[in-house]
Amino acid sequence: MFDATTILAYKGNNKAVIGGDGQVTFGDSVLKGNATKIRTLHHGKILAGFAGSTADAFNLFDMFEEFLENKKGDLLKSVVEFSKAWRKDKVLRRLEAMMIVLNNEHIFILTGNGDVVEPEDGEIAAIGSGGNFAISAARALKKHSSLDEEDLIKESLHIAADLCIYTNHNIKTLKLEEKHS
């Protein structure tokens, strides 16, 4: 598990949302409180967030974007090919980062071990040091409230920030346009 961040994503019935806090730490010191660890990819159709080394994460975002372009935005095919490349490459395997990627149809956690994990419920995923706090809060709020996807992400991340010393309350979110039936 990587310290210094919390990323939470929710592929709900109406929209897909990802959120993250802004804290960057070095050892036991806070270096920055307003970092952005989430972004849109492939013409705004994919959401992504990272936990781990910032420099490594930017490299991974750029590489993953290339796979998305080569696969014409097909998230499932892109994560499979990306994970193969990440696992096989000696340099990439040393990167200290994890990613969550999602669109309105899929949500995945990607690791440097070449893992592609689709959450058991297919809806909510979290990474980073506050990930377990955030996902617990999100599951409880989903079950016992009527919060929309974005508010659920924000509230869950605030709960994680209250509990995890590597997570702060500087929450940023991104969402995909609502699904149309």
Description:
Helices cover 33% and strands 28% of the residues. The chain contains four helices and eleven strands. The strands form three sheets. It has a five-stranded antiparallel beta sheet with strand order 5-6-7-8-9. A four-stranded antiparallel beta sheet has the order 10-1-2-11, with helices on one face. The protein has a two-stranded antiparallel ribbon with strand order 3-4. A hairpin with a 4-residue loop joins β7 (97-102) and β8 (107-111). The N and C termini lie far apart (38 Å).
List keywords for this structure.
globular; five-stranded antiparallel sheet; single chain; four-stranded antiparallel sheet; 4 helices; alpha+beta
In short:
By secondary structure, this protein is α+β, with helices and mostly antiparallel strands. It is 33% helix and 28% strand. Strand 1 and strand 2 form a beta hairpin.
Write the layout of secondary structure elements.
Layout: E1 6-11, E2 16-20, E3 24-26, E4 29-32, E5 38-41, E6 46-52, H1 54-70, H2 75-88, E7 97-102, E8 107-111, E9 116-117, E10 124-128, H3 131-144, H4 149-163, E11 172-175
Antiparallel strand pairs: 1-2, 1-10, 2-11, 3-4, 5-6, 6-7, 7-8, 8-9
